[in-house]
Amino acid sequence: MSDEHKAALAEGRNQGRAVRRYLEALDAHKPKRGRKRTAESMQKRLDRIDAELASADPLHRLQLIQERLDLKQDLEAAGRTVDLSGFEQDFVDAAAAYSKRKGISYAAWRELGVEPAVLKRAGISRAS
After folding, report:
1. 86 and 126 housed in the same domain
2. Do 58 and 77 share a structural domain?
3. I need a labelling partner for 121 at 20 to 30 A (CA). Which of 10, 59, 89, 92 fits?
């Protein structure tokens, strides 16, 4: 295998890695359907759970404890903001070559949730 071939393989792996990381980050932070829960509404539910725990039978208590754990985790997550800019810039740098090599269309990127402005910065247009 020539050095040129090895370099091309390494470049392909790097492009794939950048695209995968960005898409995974997009997927992990995709807005959920339905009414958004606020920190206030989650705290109210936590207070109600604490009140219900004292009189709940063991099976219901188990479910309430799990709901309380889930709500606490959601409250912590609601306080964090996610910065996708690093992943996004790597994606922008790699996406056009990756798309061309893999035959991926603008429509496929859009259906997956990549914003038009990001695709434009990457050099991927509807015509490509």
Report:
1. yes
2. yes
3. 10
* CA–CA separation, 112 and 23 (whole Å): 8
How many structural domains is the chain composed of? Answer: 2
Could you tell me the CA-to-CA distances from 96 to 25, 36, 49, 125 in Å, in that order? Answer: 19, 35, 50, 9
Against a cut of 0.85, is the pTM above it?
no
pLDDT averages per 10-residue partition of the chain, 128 residues:
91 94 84 77 94 94 96 82 81 94 94 93 88
The answer to whether residues 121 and 103 belong to one domain is yes
Tokens of 102: 């893999």
CA distances, 41 to each of 37, 48, 90 (Å): 6, 11, 37
Q: One-letter amino acid identity for 59?
A: L
- Contacts of residue 116, defined as CB under 8 A and 6 or more positions apart, other chains included, come to 110
CA atoms of 62 and 64, how far apart (whole Å): 5
DSSP per residue over 46-77, as a string?
A: HHHHHHHHTT--HHHHHHHHHHHHHHHHHHHH
